[in-house]
Amino acid sequence: MCTLQIEEEAHLLHICGSRSPSPRPRSGDLSLFDICWDDVLIPKVAKYLSLKDLFNLRCCSRVAQRFAEASLEIRAELHLSGNNSKNIEIAFKVLARCCHRLEVLHLACCKWLKDDLLLPLLKQNKQRLRAVNLNECVNITALSLQPIIVECKELRVLKLAKCQWLTTGAVDALTLHQSNLVEFDISHCGAIGERCLIIFFRKLNKLTILSLANTPSVTDQVLIQIGNYCKDLEHINLIGCAAISDYGVRALTVHCPRLRSLHILRCLRITELSLAALRQRQLFYIDRPPPPLQDVNAVAHNNAYNLNDFYPSDFLVY
Amino acid sequence: MYSFIPRAAPIHRDVTVQTSNGCQYRVKSELANQMVAIRCLLAKSADISVIPLEDIDSETFELVLKWCRTVRDSKVTLNEHSARTMFKKLVQESIDDRIMIYKLILAANFLDIESLWGATTQHLSDEINECKSVQDMNKIFNVK
């Protein structure tokens, strides 16, 4: 004889003739919203519906509106990246009011997004958010970042590329409160200093994906720090970081055994002297193709004199 | 990928069910095993001779049996895509109004038939996805 779970016992009682908690509609009157909401419509149907479908349903009737809003309440992901359509702010206010269980929030390139729109959504969802993408959200400020940094304890992915409003103070706060990030993007954030980054990577040592493209303060010393502390690093984007050289890349090669891809376009001071060792690794991707074979020796000879010409820094550690 | 949830032991005999309008059906064990609620009931009370299905009429139950036979006889692995295709075929062959689809959803929920539950709810959400406007939704689903 098997042991039944509580919900199975309840179900058995029901099929043996006990009274149903809700009135049963006559067959001829059966409609979409007569199907059980908690057991069927919301967990099984609503999860396949797009935001467009839910907002259309909201307009059909009061019952449909309640259903749409009940579906939004348990929705785990919100993808509005690049959506700058008319009336999006009004729709976003509805989402901010209804969504309570968001885990993934993609709002990249939402030019309309401001602090007063975003803060209510963050307040409702801070417990479960684990991935937040605010790339190119140019009209919000560090004020919106505060609840994300301080209260989103489950946060693992944070993308803030081209957020020129991102300050050193905000990154210092991240260092203090968010040591479990695995993916971080601060490409094109010119206001962040070298020292701030060095302290940041000392603490955030669980990073696997990192983008620092076109961040002028990324130096060899920063790469050494990444190599020393971010041992799990797998992908790093350093496109346009003009200050880095073979010295920094070599630190990554030696200390990051799991590194699988490296983006170094427009990093003119990086040569095959440091890249050759990485190319030996299986399944390793570098965005700069290897030079033709006959040029390799010429490159090695020419660049031998550049080894000592690395970016000097007050924090250089031997 | 759909699979049986082994909350109760498989049934090894044919079972008799009675629908809400009094019709009785003898259901083969390999079809009854897809209905987890019936397995659970028989696991608790093995000597039940006729299982009452108060909320399912005979027309709906025949379609449930047709679905279960299709799943049993299917040569492909049952997953979301294949279930969607099989259900569309069932709709084209045997279902001519939306109310029957709602009844099938209720029956699948009642009898706990995971494959039918997934296929019907997926079909319903596909129909909602195809609506281009609020007016389409009002017309197709009679939502007022």
UniProtKB/TrEMBL annotation, chain A:
One of its GO terms (biological process) is locomotor rhythm. Gene3D superfamilies: Ribonuclease Inhibitor. GO terms for cellular component: SCF ubiquitin ligase complex. It comes from Drosophila willistoni. InterPro entries: FBXL15_LRR, Leu-rich_rpt_Cys-con_subtyp, LRR_dom_sf. Residues 65-252 form the F-box/LRR-repeat protein 15-like leucin rich repeat domain. This is F-box/LRR-repeat protein 15-like leucin rich repeat domain-containing protein. Pfam families: DUF7885.
UniProtKB/TrEMBL annotation, chain B:
The keyword Nucleotide-binding does not apply. It comes from the Eukaryota. SMART domains: Skp1 (SM00512). Belongs to the SKP1 family. InterPro entries: SKP1, SKP1-like, SKP1-like_dim_sf, SKP1/BTB/POZ_sf. Signal peptide: none annotated. Keywords: Ubl conjugation pathway. It comes from Drosophila willistoni (Fruit fly). This is SKP1 component POZ domain-containing protein. GO terms for biological process: ubiquitin-dependent protein catabolic process.
